[in-house]
Design goal:
Length: 299
Amino acid sequence: MPFIQLEQLSLHYEQQLNGDVPIILLHGNFGSWHYWQPFLQNLPEGYSGYAPDFRGCGDSDVTDAGYDIQTLSQDVLAFADQLKLDKFHLVGHSLGGAVAQQLAGTSPDRVISLTLVAPAPAGGMPSLKNASTSGGFFSAKNTFQFLATIGLKRRVLSAAIKKSMPGLSHYPHYLDIAVDDALKMDIKAFDGFLATLKRWNGIQLLKNFNFPVFIIYGELDSVVPLQSLKAMQQQIKDCRLQIFRHIGHSPQLENPKAFNKLLSAFLQGNKIEPLSESPFKKQVNLFKQLKLKLKRIFK
């Protein structure tokens, strides 16, 4: 459980060393480094992965402020400097995708490639416009305190995660980890992340992306609209978009085997093969076919 001491906080991270080429992996809201555990365990040869916990998340320190996307990206740069990672592949999921865009757009000379997994779109998230932050009666802080008081916080978070990441029904272990991470995140982080996502816009950063960019999306994602990512793709010089079928907001946990293969191919500069159908969907289809055959036989 290594830590790095930054100017304002102690930052926890996990690493897997399998070569000289560094990859920095940034988690999303309610998350931690655990979202990258399946990928870290299957790193391509020649690469090393580093997955920090944002402030207020996982085992990193909680601070009173600094939960905006700009400060989070500065934390990541300071983290890379401490580890002496001059250039690196950068991967960001959800909120971490916005942080990755911010870092890549302001320090493009540090980035070898950029992978955005169900990222907060560069054009912002208008769906959050009416979300209540810390000052409102129905703010996250007040809501979560009420749910904790009546003993429903875990159940409500579990239901929300299942809805946004339906593929986790096949991976109950990862579902438990995702819920544990959400419960562990400090309310200051949640309030800060919501506030920054409501106002952040990274459209002007896209013109600085002078490296390959890969956007990965799940077709059942209820958090990020696909059209906003397609609009981003049109504004980036070298950008590919891959859509997972039957998957929601976290492809890296909902179909880790296919995700790891896809990301590894991109990082290594190999041809990206079209995604095959989800193994769980295949099982369902085979069951349906067998059922139809039995009905014909015994009709």
